[in-house]
């Protein structure tokens, strides 16, 4: 299902470590891997000096993609290489669209302090804006990655973007002959301390059960043979998902994300963004299409 993969490569820690996992996927699917390096010409030092500095960045990029392609060749994986100039996230998104890429694969890093709240990384910007599905992987987890995926988790809340994630997750499960785990989380914070909370909880559980039944029916009709359904109560949806991943030895989690504009695009508050940053396993994201997004 993934005939073409895009792997943006740079010299950051962990990029090399996760490439073997990408090659595992490419080998299994007979995929061509596009290896792209972007000479970041938006940095002040480069903008002010240009010329020779940019040439140096390009030469370093050419060497990096060549070395990465050599690793793929050793595994029998076909590659396409390219080095571009510009703002990395924009180049990556444009390249994926222009070359009909089926899956973008990128490393991500957990961060601490105030910078957690700001969308500064290339990966996060690509996740927010790209219409191409994106597989993000924490470099620290590279040594423990499992492939083929045997257990795939799709959390659902019945939203349009969750339904898109379900459709993609079902495709992955069928391609990998994996077990599909469906999860609905009831956030305890929504119940409050009101005496009516018991009634509200009952309504939420009934709604969650209906959502899971509908999702399971969709998956079964699409050919999925093994489906499990779980409702969890937790203070945090992302924490519940991470706990489920650990408790059930899940190999991949598939989630939807919203494309947003304005100031809120710079705030990292969503469940998906939390998972991208902290999940111990690969996260496959698919964005709900928007009419006005960059």
UniProtKB/TrEMBL annotation:
Residues 1-137, 149-287 form the UspA domain. Pfam families: Usp. It comes from the Archaea. InterPro entries: Rossmann-like_a/b/a_fold, Universal_stress_UspA, UspA. Belongs to the universal stress protein A family. This is Universal stress protein. It comes from Haloarchaeobius amylolyticus.
């Amino acid at each position: 299902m993934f005939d073409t993969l895009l792997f943006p490569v740079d010299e950051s820690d962990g990029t090399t470590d996760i490439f073997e996992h990408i090659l595992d996927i490419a080998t299994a699917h007979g995929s061509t891997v596009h290896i792209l390096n972007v000479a970041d010409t938006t940095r002040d030092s480069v903008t002010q000096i240009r010329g020779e500095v940019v040439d140096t960045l390009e030469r370093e990029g050419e060497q990096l993609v060549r070395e990465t392609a050599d690793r793929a060749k050793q595994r029998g994986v076909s590659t396409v290489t390219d080095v571009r100039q510009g703002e990395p996230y924009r180049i990556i998104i444009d390249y994926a669209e222009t070359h009909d890429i089926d899956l973008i694969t990128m490393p991500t890093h957990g961060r601490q302090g105030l910078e957690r709240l700001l969308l500064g990384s290339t990966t996060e910007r690509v996740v927010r804006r790209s219409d191409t599905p994106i597989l993000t992987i924490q470099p620290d987890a590279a040594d423990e990655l499992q492939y083929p995926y045997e257990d795939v988790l799709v959390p659902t809340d019945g939203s349009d973007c969750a339904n898109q994630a379900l459709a993609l997750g079902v495709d992955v499960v069928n391609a990998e002959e994996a077990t599909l785990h469906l999860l609905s989380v009831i956030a305890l914070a929504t119940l409050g301390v009101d005496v009516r909370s018991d009634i509200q909880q009952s309504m939420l559980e009934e709604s969650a059960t209906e959502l899971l039944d509908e999702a399971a029916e969709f998956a079964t009709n699409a050919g999925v043979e093994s489906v499990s359904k779980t409702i969890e109560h937790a203070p945090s949806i992302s924490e519940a998902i991470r706990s489920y991943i650990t408790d059930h030895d899940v190999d991949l989690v598939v989630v939807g994300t919203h494309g947003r504009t304005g100031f809120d695009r710079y705030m990292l508050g969503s469940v998906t963004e939390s998972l991208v940053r902290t999940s111990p396993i690969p996260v496959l994201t698919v964005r709900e299409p928007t009419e006005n997004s960059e």
